[in-house]
Amino acid sequence: MRKSNLPDWNHDHLQADDSAPDWFKRAVNTPVKSNYVIVDDCAIHYLTWEVNDTPHHPQKPGLLFIHGGGAHANWWRFIAPSFIDKYRVAAIDLSGMGDSEKREEYSAALRAQEILHVLKAAELGPQPIVIGHSFGGLMTMRFGADFGDQIGGAIIVDSPVLPESEKASEVPRRVLSVQRYYPTFEIGLERFRLLPAQECKNTFIVDFIARHSLIETDMGWTWKFDVKAMGANRWSEPFHEHLAKMKCPSALIVAENSGIVSAVTADYMSDLMGPESPMIKIKNSHHHIMLDQPLSFIEAVNDLLADWGKFKHIKEIV
What we know:
Layout lengths: L21 H7 L3 E8 L2 E8 L12 E5 L21 E5 L15 H14 L7 E5 L1 H13 L5 E5 L6 H4 L13 E2 L2 H6 L12 H9 L2 E4 L2 E4 L15 H6 L5 E6 L7 H11 L5 E4 L6 H4 L1 H13 L8 E3 L1
Parallel strand pairs: 3-4, 3-5, 5-6, 6-10, 10-11, 11-12
Antiparallel strand pairs: 1-2, 2-4, 7-9, 8-9
């Protein structure tokens, strides 16, 4: 089982680049723990950050971060520690990605179950908040439609649900079908690319997540994700229906320069979510918001968690 091959998070090749700012180094060096929960015969990996819960300090409310397609829980290593003073925090590896096991077949329904099981296994409390980026946001929509009455809210981060007017001009999404192998870790690292492609000035962040995206096998170094989990069927769900049917408070965070969520798409999604759901646009960011503007992203989430109500009917620029 892959869970026997978990990396040593303290290994030299997984550390932050020396050029990274101090806040980033402090964040990724915050103690983190690997955990597993079995969901439909598949070991689902998730990270948790240490908290101080004692009889004098009742359990904090919970936050669960969900990564995008082909990504993993370590994408949140420099984001999650900002919340651990007030929240119990976890980040999931969806099946077929990160350090979770692979499945023969994948579905949004199964991934909603994975999210539900991790929320319970990580003891994130009775009304946790789920935060999903890109593909993870789509899975959050399905989860919210199925189990939204069991959480306190959902934050969707730059996940595209296109109106009919946008589908004709939609940029084809990349479908992966071949597992790539590299003879050395260094060569694999050089091949790392963001999907969808974008520039990112914070190269120290891209380097860090790239280092956590590779795994050594008998055939060489390869990406942790299962190519079968990156097929075209991952977009086949009626996500517009899930978004409209979510059984919990919801909010939308979008990138000012997103390549997949246009202003028209963002307005369409906002309409589906309803007038009680705030939308925040983060300036000078592309689709991978937490890489471009990590501190602004943290600020936006904190603002929402503090008081979603104050954002009603208002589009904020952070």
